[in-house]
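quick one before i forget lol
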Amino acid sequence: MPYLRGTLSLAFHHGDIPGFKDFLAQTHPDNHPDYRHQNNMTWDVDGNIGKCYHISLIVFLQLLYYLEKVNFTTSFGEGVSFDENGDPPPIYDVMSWAWLPGGSAKLNYVGVVKRTASGDEELTLDEEEEDGIFWNSESKKPPRSVCSDSCSPGTRLARRKGEPVCCFDCITCSEGEISNETDSTECIICPEDFWSNPQHDHCVPKVTEFLSYHEALGISLTTMSLLGTLICATVLGIFIYYRNTPMVRANNSELSFQLLLSLKLCFLCSLLFIGRPRVWTCQLRHAAFGISFVLCVSCILVKTMVVLAVFKASKPGGADIMKWFGPMQQRGTVLVLTSIQAIICIAWLVSASPTPHKNTQYHSDKIVYECEVGSIVGFGVLLGYIGLLALLSFLLAFMARNLPDNFNEAKLITFSMLIFCAVWIAFIPAYISSPGKYADVVEVFAILASSFGILVALFGPKCYIIVLRPERNTKKSIMGRGTPKT
């Protein structure tokens, strides 16, 4: 027995029929004659044995025909059926020999061997039974198979050439693929918007990436945008409050007000580049950006032209030139130049409107939400028109920078346009080489940098004199007849 303990053997399947013992205990042959042993398959007809055999064969074939159609499940869960020979499907109990303390042995039921619906034979062992299999080894555990261990979920089974079928390698599924069953032969590719988890046994939604209001970069840019808007509003308030002082009146106050309002729009339009791209934000962001900056640069261009016109008017024979640069002409010029940009934007939106796009080219496990510009030509014309006006403003201001005036605004315009052009020249290569949300970051930074450059260069010195040096905010000082130069 020390060597035979745990031996597995097969036995004919047996089981208890619920209520059958009670039924037999209450049954008596006198009351139930039909339960006696009888052979209804053979009988003698007129003493003719040959005829009897013939009739028995017919009855047997008839019975066999009906036996093949029998298929039901008993009340205690066992199936009843017969094959083409009238035999029930083979089913055997697996028994394990157990060694009892007193020296005797007993057989424990530990499993079953039966035929499946597909016709294969299946062995099932129940190791969780209290009197289960006794593994007769030092470890008291099931023996290790000479075959490979099962492949866990997240891997696929790759058989080894030239080795038994049960020998294989477990290969981890590739990125974006999973297997969620043991011994999977193939990995499943995750749907488009999903990616495999680190264990490669489940598909999880891909991480989405865009310039968000909740990340540090988005918060910083939003703060700078709102700060610029607040500074513009403050400067506008100072100019309105001191609108009758020489400093404000001498620098074309109406165009200064328009310029400050357009700068506020430039700061605010940068907010459209932050947040998850949607159809309306993609369409509005570049249109608002293009129109706001053309309005801003148009005001600067007209201010520069007015400076040159005033200087020309002071020369002999130049008195008539100012009739071309009156308030109505200034407003009309700004309106026409801005309307051209509006027409460019409308044509761009109608022909090839920018749309949101889910980009997976940068990172396979991420969805980068971005706005496709729709038409590179439209975007290029929009930027080109802004650059043309800025370059023209710079050239005119550069020519007027040395005009005889104690406070020549052309110098400030030259410096502001120099900053503006430098920012946007550096923007183009940085924008093209920046992937995903960082392209939006570059564009927002360019908008904020150029807007702050214009705001500080044009209005910083004026606000300094108006607020902190009011003694210089006089007509004599501005005309050069105040404090003597040193």
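fyi The longest strand covers residues 105-115.
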